[in-house]
Structure formats: structure tokens, C-alpha cells
Amino acid sequence: MKKRDNAKSYLLLKDIFPQNAVDLKMFSKKSIAYRYFRFKEKRLYAQSDFIGCMSQANVDFILENNIEVSPDVVEVCPNSIEPLIIKKDEKIIKQVREKYNIPHDKLVFIYGGNLGKPQGIDFLIECLKANKSNEQVYFVIAGSGTEYKKLRNYFNNEQPSNAQLYNQLPKEDYETLANSCDVGLIFLDYRFSIPNFPSRLLSYMQASMPVLAATDINTDIGKVIEDGNFGCWCESNDVEQFNKKVDWLCDPERRKQMGKNAREYLEQNYSAKKSYEIIMRHFK
């Protein structure tokens, strides 16, 4: 298409593969699979006139590990959405919580999305175990993926009284449920050397929810969250720190201000209009 139409291409780089698979021990750098996919990755970068990365840490990683890529063509062009106006109606929140058997008098944390190896489900289970007797909080997990069965086995065996697990819900049902919760959760495996930046963050921000992220040390999502003052971060191999962050978020005034900050940060930095402007400035 580029040759035929003399077109330019803009790569929105959402995932850095195959290094993410190497981090999770799916295959080694010595394998044929790695060499094949690494060749395809480099070819993709070479064919792209511009590369938009999810965050600055992604930009730095690409340039450090692909010296043939020019810094002039790589920039930050993050995940984005067209923010919807979401009104917090206490009556609707009460109805939704009753529908899903979620208590009204507890701080509700929600994780929604993929339940696979990248999310470090073993750590999530450890966090649920550590908070099993915490009467202030309630955890809602909704999603699907290769590790769903592991989570389901935990719920079946332990039957925690302050947590629920749902298989992937229809989008509208999930959004309604998420908008009725208090804090959004993000999990990433602690072994990652690549700086993932999950798009799940945006749905929490749209709902004016503070965010608790438990991730590896190489992603900058925690820095973005804390610098924007709309949540907190800990490493995803430190249950004690996770529990401290949970307790810290139990302050309702703190959550209210952070939720407001989340919405404002979303509108200023992660709107579709902003992404459009970043991309189109190359083609005017």
C-alpha cells in the first residue's frame, strides 16, 4: 500500500513483542520463535514512518533496544478514548450493588479485563488472601483469560466473603458495575522488563475513580498515576505494600479528590482529540 499509493504509515505500538513473552518465560532469546518474531518486529519498525508509544518509558525502551530506529520518528501517543459524561447516581449505585450482591457499606475495589499471565494472577490471589479478614473492603474481579481457571479454583476452595469473581461480562453490564465501585485495580507481572501501559486505566479514570496499580518497576504507569495524584502504586511482589495502599485509600475525602483528578487528567491527556492532534501534525 505504501508503494502503490505513496502513503505514510503511523504505528500505534500497544505491545512490545516478543520481549514480553521472554519476560514471562514463554520462550528464550535463543529460541527460533524469538529470532523469528524479533525479525518481524524490527521489520515493522523499519516500515513505519512514525511510531506512537503508550508512554515515555516505552519510547525510551524502543530507542535503547533498537538503535537503527531514529529518535525523530518515535513519540508518545498514548491510549485514548472519547470521554463520556458519567454521573454518580447513588440510587443507581445501590441498585447495581444489590443486583451483583455487593455490600453498600464497604470500599469496593474492582479489577476488570484480561486474566492472563501478564497480569500476575498469583500475586492477585495473594492479595485476596491477605485481605480475607479485612472487613472494610470488598473486591470484585471480572474478566476472562488463560488464568481465569486458577482464580476460579481459589474462589471455589477458599470462598472469600469479601470478594467475587465474574466471568467476562457484556460491555454495558461491566461499565455499569465498574461505575458503581470505588477504586480501580491494575495488575502486571513483576518480571516484566518492558514498560506495559494497560488501557484499562482509562475506564477507571472516565468513571472518576482513583487507581491502585501493582506492577513491575519498569513501567511508568505508577509514576503517571502518582504524579497526576489520582491513585497510588506498589510493586507486584510486595503484598505488605499493597495492603498499606488499600488502607490508605480508605479515606473517603482522599478518594473523592483523586477521582476528580483522574477525570481531569483523562480529559487533558488521554482524549481521542489529543491523539488525533499528535498523529495529524505529521501530515499537514
Characterization of this structure:
- The chain has 13 helices and nine strands.
- The protein is an alpha/beta fold and 284 residues long.
- It folds into two domains: 76 residues, no CATH class; 180 residues, Rossmann fold (3-Layer(aba) Sandwich).
- The strands form two sheets. The chain has a six-stranded parallel beta sheet, with helices on both faces.
- Strand 8, helix 10 and strand 9 form a beta-alpha-beta unit.
- The longest helix has 18 residues.
- The two termini are 20 Å apart.
Give me a quick take on this structure.
The chain has 284 residues and is of the alpha/beta class. The protein has 13 helices and nine strands.
Secondary structure layout:
Elements: H1 2-5, E1 10-13, H2 19-23, H3 32-47, E2 50-53, H4 56-65, E3 74-76, H5 90-99, E4 107-114, H6 121-130, E5 137-144, H7 148-158, E6 163-166, H8 171-178, E7 183-187, H9 200-206, E8 211-215, H10 221-227, E9 231-235, H11 239-248, H12 252-269, H13 272-280
Parallel strand pairs: 1-2, 2-3, 4-5, 4-7, 5-6, 7-8, 8-9
Helix pairs in contact: 9-12
